[in-house]
Structure formats: structure tokens, C-alpha cells
Design goal:
3 domains; 411 residues; three-stranded antiparallel β-sheet; DNA polymerase, domain 1; mainly alpha; hpI Integrase, Chain A
Length: 411
């Protein structure tokens, strides 16, 4: 039986070269990820070219690693930028061959000193401390910026690292950010400095000497828009394209159930009970889950997206990338973009542009309609009552009797 794609010359026959056996597995993988046939042909042509180059340079799979990949790309494209995602195609091929059990070299492609240090730090956070992936990703992002600011792309001389270097970085970055963001930066730097001290990279434990960032509990106010504005945003969503219908379904989950970004991204097909109109929400940090009623409009929007637009692939996630590879995890930025686009389209001016805007708006709307803080906390799945207590500050009718009268009366 012939495969549903054309094998390029140089990848067939008894003398096809070392990559011929991996053409069909690669094509199957690409098709499952939702790539089009035209894109698959371009990928196979590149692999055929790489295969010929391996034969010409007398290399086999034992020599096949990322450094060889780099030499091929330079020989094919010179100083020009590789086209059609060539590095990604060949790295995917390397991964496929390694998964098959073929002995390939595992040498990385000239990682920078910062990359090596951050890789070790990531393993320390995951394996030894057991932190959640989302926390590790946030710490890594801050530390990479710190190392780039401190050492550029050159050699990292940790024995010269001083407390003043960390404090100066906190002042520079924190001066342009809010207190919450700066708190996370401080936590990341403390964690990184403890890691360096335990590894013996620095002589003194500098982590305890980093000062705290003043940020008092319940000091701020929740940023929200009115329920009328929320409805205007939802009504104005673009729903004539697959991307628009996907974003509309995600926004309805944010607005009707107050879901967090990570909860929307982690939603699986099996988490929706269509007969009981329930949805299972999995915690973004650590174990745990909750079941919530699925509103009718959100259920209809999700069903419409699944029936008309969701790409067919192996992933069990409800919401997928609009472009291949569909199974790849798309990030919070996709939801953030959908929120900002919908607000701009509806002409709604909001105090913040993130996905939490709808979560705060749902809570304040419920409070104004008479819901208790306990009911709001249950819907939003707060672990602490103090978190829900923030919304009491916007209930002016409940706060007014608590206010002391002004001495001397109203002037």
C-alpha cells in the first residue's frame, strides 16, 4: 500500500541513505499535528537534501547530532536565514530518531554558559524542590534576564557576584513594574542565590540579605468593568473565523466562570460532561480539581468550535493552536491577545488588560447582586478567605454603615 504522500528522490531505494527509514514516521507525526500536505512536501524535500549531504560527507546516524545539523544548515543557507522553519524540522527529526531508540549523540548545539547554568537550576527546582512547572518557568524567566543584564552573552563569573548586583537589578526592574511583579522577581533571585550557595558557586548565602518588597495584604482594589461592559465585549466578539470562534469560547469561560488562563489552557475534552452540563476545572498549581455548572452560552460556543473548527490531532486539549503544529501547547499570550482584541473591538476602556479582568468583574458583579463572599470564594475556588475578602472593598452599601461620621458633621 502506497503512503498518502510522495517520497522525494534520494529517500527511496536500497542506497537511499541513513534517513530513509524515518520518512514515513516523520510524515505520520506531521500529519497528526495538522500540517498541510504542501508543508509536508517542503519538509520532506529538506530532509532529502539533508540525507544527500550526510551521504556525500560520509556520515551516518552515529555522527548525527545538533552540531552536524548546524554544519548542514550553514552549507545550505550560508549566511542567509534558513527558510521554511528548517532548524525546527531537523530538530524534530532528531527527536523522532532518538525516541525510536537509535543511538544518536546527545551533544547540544553550542549552549551558552547561561543556558547550561539555567538548565541545572531548572532541574534543581523540579527534582529537588518539586516546584510547579508554572513557578519554575516564572523563576527561569527572571533569572535569564538577570544573567543577561549582568554578564551579557559571555562567560559567567559567579565568584564575582555581589549582593549589590542583585539589589541593583531589583531596583532597575522593579522601578518599572508593580509591587506584585517585583515580589516575584525577589523570590526568584533568592531561590537562585540559594541554589548557587548550595552548589558551592558562591561563598556566602546572599539570599537572606535581599530586602523584602513592601506590599500590604488587601492594599489594592480589584480591577474590573461593569457587567454591561462585559456583555458588550462578548457581543462584539468576531465569530466569523475559526480563530474568532475559538477565542469567543475561551472568553465566555473567563467571563461566566471566572477561570484563570492556565485553567482554560489545561481544559481537556474529557473534562466536559455534556449530559450533566458540568465542567471539571483542574488546579493550575499542584493537585486538585473542582466541578462547576457549564453555562448554556459557553457550552454552545465550545460545541460550535469543536464541531466546526477544532483541528484533528492527537492532543486531548479542548483549545488548540490555530496553526500547525496544532498539538503544541499555546501560551497565556494567546488568551491575553484575545482579551485585548475583544476589549478594543468593543470600545471598552478597562483598568487592566489581562484575563483576570473578567474574573474580578464576575466577582464584583455577583457581590452587587447580593451574593455572599463565601459563594464568590466557592465559585472562584479560592483557598483562603482573605483572597475573597478583597472584593468586600467594592461593596459600598455594606461598607457605608461601618464608616465613622466626620467630626462636626457634613460642611
Amino acid at each position: 500500500m502506497n503512503p498518502p504522500f510522495a517520497i522525494p528522490k534520494g529517500l527511496a531505494g536500497p542506497h537511499a541513505g541513513p534517513l530513509a527509514a524515518y520518512v514515513e514516521p516523520y510524515a505520520t507525526l506531521i500529519q497528526r499535528q495538522g500540517y498541510r500536505s504542501a508543508t509536508l512536501r517542503l519538509h520532506l524535500q529538506l530532509i532529502a537534501s539533508f540525507n544527500r549531504w550526510l551521504v556525500w560527507t560520509h556520515r551516518d546516524l552515529r555522527d548525527f547530532d545538533e552540531s552536524v545539523l548546524g554544519r548542514f544548515l550553514r552549507s545550505r543557507f550560508g549566511n542567509r536565514r534558513p527558510v521554511n522553519g528548517a532548524p525546527l524540522v531537523l530538530h524534530r527529526l532528531i527527536g523522532l530518531i532518538r525516541v525510536s531508540g537509535t543511538a544518536l549523540a546527545e551533544r547540544p548545539l553550542s549552549p551558552s554558559p547561561a543556558d547550561r547554568l539555567i538548565d541545572n537550576y531548572r532541574r534543581y527546582l523540579l527534582a529537588e524542590l518539586g516546584l510547579a512547572l508554572s513557578t519554575v518557568a516564572g523563576y527561569e524567566w527572571h533569572i535569564r534576564k538577570f544573567l543577561l543584564r549582568q554578564y551579557g552573552g559571555g562567560q559567567i563569573k559567579l565568584h564575582r557576584l555581589r549582593l549589590q548586583d542583585a539589589i541593583r537589578f531589583i531596583r532597575e526592574v522593579g522601578g518599572r513594574s508593580g509591587p506584585r511583579h517585583t515580589q516575584l522577581l525577589v523570590a526568584a533571585l533568592r531561590s537562585f542565590l540559594r541554589f548557587l550557595y548550595h552548589r558551592g558557586e558562591i561563598e556566602n548565602d546572599l539570599a537572606p540579605a535581599i530586602p523584602n518588597v513592601p506590599h500590604w495584604t488587601l492594599a489594592g482594589l480589584p480591577k474590573y468593568i461593569s457587567q454591561e461592559a462585559v456583555q458588550r465585549v462578548l457581543s462584539g466578539c468576531e465569530r466569523h473565523t475559526p480563530l474568532g470562534r475559538r477565542n469567543y469560547a475561551m472568553l465566555l469561560l473567563l467571563a461566566r466562570l471566572g477561570l484563570r488562563c492556565g485553567e482554560v489552557l489545561r481544559l481537556n475534552l474529557g473534562d466536559i460532561d455534556w449530559e450533566a452540563s458540568r465542567i471539571t476545572i483542574r488546579a493550575t498549581k499542584g493537585p486538585g480539581w473542582a466541578q462547576l455548572p457549564l453555562p448554556a452560552d459557553a457550552a454552545k460556543a465550545i460545541a460550535d468550535y469543536l464541531h466546526r473548527d477544532r483541528p484533528s490531532c492527537d492532543s486531548r486539549r479542548v483549545f488548540l493552536r490555530a496553526r500547525a503544529p496544532h498539538a503544541a501547547v499555546f501560551t497565556h499570550s494567546a488568551i491575553l491577545f484575545a482579551v485585548r482584541t475583544a476589549l478594543k473591538r468593543a470600545g471598552v476602556t478597562a483598568p487592566r488588560m489581562g484575563a483576570h479582568l473578567f474574573r474580578h468583574s464576575l466577582a464584583t458583579g455577583m457581590l452587587k447582586q447580593g451574593a455572599s463572599l463565601e459563594e464568590i470564594g466557592q465559585l472562584l475556588r479560592h483557598r483562603s478567605q482573605n483572597t475573597t475578602a478583597l472584593y468586600a472593598k467594592v461593596d459600598m452599601n455594606a461598607l457605608r454603615p461601618l464608616a465613622l461620621s466626620w467630626p462636626g458633621g457634613v460642611q
